[in-house]
Amino acid sequence: MKNRTNEQLCALAQKGDTEARSLLVEQNAGFLRKTAGELYRSMNLAQSNLCVDCEDLVQEGSIGLLSAAAGFDAARGIKFLTYAAPAIRNAMTDLIRAEFAQFEQKVVHGENELGIQIIRLEDVRSEEEQAQRIEAISHPLAHSPEEIYIKQEELSELYQALGKLSAREQTYLLYRFGFADDTAHPLLGTALHFHLGESRAKRTEEQALDNLWLELPWWY
């Protein structure tokens, strides 16, 4: 049984074989942990005040994997893990969304009692983030003089445009797209970081990008 492929285990699991279901999870534990780790880091969950750790994500991912196994059809010629990956990630993300919704309710009804320190867009000094990022990018590293010049010209135009936005919009975009730390953060992760609802974060992003686009020189 242990030497069977994912696809073979799926076929057995669909017939009600509980051992095959367990082996399917065990056999793909590495992928589950890798996906959980990527989400945990990209969404900065360690600093989010949510009661979610990697093991919670792995458990939810296992449920997503088994749900995918129930609908898997090997005749389509797709590898099981390729088919199951979106369901695994969605299951993990759904857990984070559910925890975030509960966290929002707690903060609304008793922020002071919880002693939670919330990062708000209005409280972040985007000027410092921007200055630090420009200084870091300006270092030549291994680029040729021509590459450095072109990159600095493009970045100069971008930061000039960013400088014309509100501090709130600057801060959001600097974090969301990795200008501040070279790491682009997903929408939900950015919402968690700034304690915004997901829909509000999306509206903030759309408005900020629209305003940025209008300030870029190649728009005219």
Short description:
InterPro entries: RNA_pol_sigma-70_dom (IPR014284), RNA_pol_sigma70 (IPR000943), RNA_pol_sigma70_r2 (IPR007627), RNA_pol_sigma_r2 (IPR013325), RNA_pol_sigma_r3/r4-like (IPR013324), Sigma-70_RNA_pol_init_factors (IPR050239), WH-like_DNA-bd_sf (IPR036388). This protein has 220 residues and is mainly alpha-helical. Helices cover 70% and strands 0% of the residues.
What descriptive keywords fit this protein?
single chain; 2 domains; Arc Repressor Mutant, subunit A; mainly alpha; Rna Polymerase Sigma Factor, Chain: A; transcription regulation
Describe the fold and architecture.
The protein is mainly α. It folds into two domains: 6-110, RNA polymerase sigma factor, region 2, helix turn helix motif (Rna Polymerase Sigma Factor, Chain: A); 121-219, Winged helix-like DNA-binding domain superfamily/Winged helix DNA-binding domain (Arc Repressor Mutant, subunit A, Orthogonal Bundle), CATH 1.10.10.10. Helices cover 70% and strands 0% of the residues. It is built from ten helices and no strands. It has helices at residues 6-14, 18-27, 29-42, 54-71, 80-114, 126-137, 145-163, 167-176, 187-194, 198-215. Helix 1 (6-14) runs antiparallel to helix 2 and helix 3 (29-42) packs across helix 5 (80-114). The protein is elongated, with a radius of gyration of 22 Å. This is Sigma-70 family RNA polymerase sigma factor. Pfam families: Sigma70_r2. Residues 56-69 form the RNA polymerase sigma-70 domain. It comes from Pseudoflavonifractor intestinihominis. Keywords: DNA-binding, Sigma factor, Transcription, Transcription regulation.
